[in-house]
Design brief:
The protein is mostly helical. It has one domain (about 5-225). The protein has helices at about 5-15, 20-35, 40, 45-75, 80-105, 110-130, 140-150, 155-165, 170-200, 205-225, and strands spanning about 230, 235. It has a two-stranded antiparallel sheet. α5 runs antiparallel to α8, α5 packs antiparallel against α10 and α8 (about 155-165) runs antiparallel to α9 (about 170-200). The longest helix has about 35 residues, at about 45-75.
Length: about 250
């Protein structure tokens, strides 16, 4: 996948798919919020500092994961021609987005199996978060957010698939930061209106609409070739290990 396109795709994925965050993270955000001292909860500016700190930590964890998978993806794709690497990346990204859309719509729960695998890592990480509870400062909220970022989530795994094929460590990092920013509006809103948003997310038509949008985005990714595969209408051919000259 084009390294410039991957962050945009990840941002839209986070933005459209963040309805999943309501069900997945709504209870967590609610617990974070209502676990704060009343003196913090009744003052919007102080509450906002905690909510921002949670999410900065969460997005930082996504960035670290994006860096790691971006490095791995670059090591693998360096053995392929640019054209083949782009096609493989497009297929992986599109397939994961379609799987995520079907998951969000409740039509196919394959990503739930990945979440169950991720839960094995989560049971080792989650106790670390308990050590900073109850949080009494934005710094503690930041640390809690760093742990929260490792919560098993099919949507995060789909974004990591984009980071994997983004084109390197920096592109992978940027992709996951963009994904985290896409989820930010919903998760910040949940800190103030968690109960109402959870009720909205339970409605079947909302999940079906979001799932259909993400499936459509995945189909588009699969069917539309990346622009760097063509130059002035001519196909660019490369041999293994050789990069086209600009």
């Amino acid at each position: 996948m084009n390294g410039e396109l991957a962050p945009l795709s990840a941002f839209l994925l986070g933005l459209f798919g963040s309805v999943h965050c309501i069900g997945m993270c709504g209870a967590i955000v609610g617990a974070f919020t209502y676990g704060l001292p009343e003196a913090v909860r009744i003052r919007p500016t102080r509450l906002a500092s905690y909510l921002i700190a949670y999410n900065v930590g969460r997005v930082a964890t996504y960035a670290i994961a994006g860096l790691l998978v971006g490095l791995f993806g670059a090591a693998v794709t360096d053995t392929l021609t640019r054209e083949l690497a782009a096609n493989v990346g497009r297929l992986i990204a599109g397939a994961f987005m379609i799987a995520l859309g079907l998951y969000l719509g409740g039509w196919w729960l394959m990503l739930a199996r990945l979440e169950s695998l991720g839960s094995k890592l989560w049971v080792r990480i989650e106790p670390v978060g308990r050590r900073v509870l109850p949080q009494r400062s934005p710094l503690q909220a930041l640390l809690l957010g760093l742990v929260w970022g490792w919560l098993p989530c099919g949507m995060v795994y789909s974004a990591l698939a984009l980071a994997l094929v983004a084109g390197g460590a920096l592109a992978g990092t940027a992709t996951m930061i963009a994904f985290g920013l896409g989820t930010l509006p919903m998760l910040l809103a949940m800190g103030a209106a968690a109960r109402w948003l959870q009720e909205l997310a339970r409605r079947r038509w909302v999940r079906a609409l979001v799932g259909a949008l993400v499936v459509g985005f995945g189909v588009y990714t699969l069917l539309v070739p990346q622009s760097h595969q063509h130059r002035d209408g001519a196909h660019v051919h490369t041999t293994p290990g050789e990069h086209p000259r600009h």
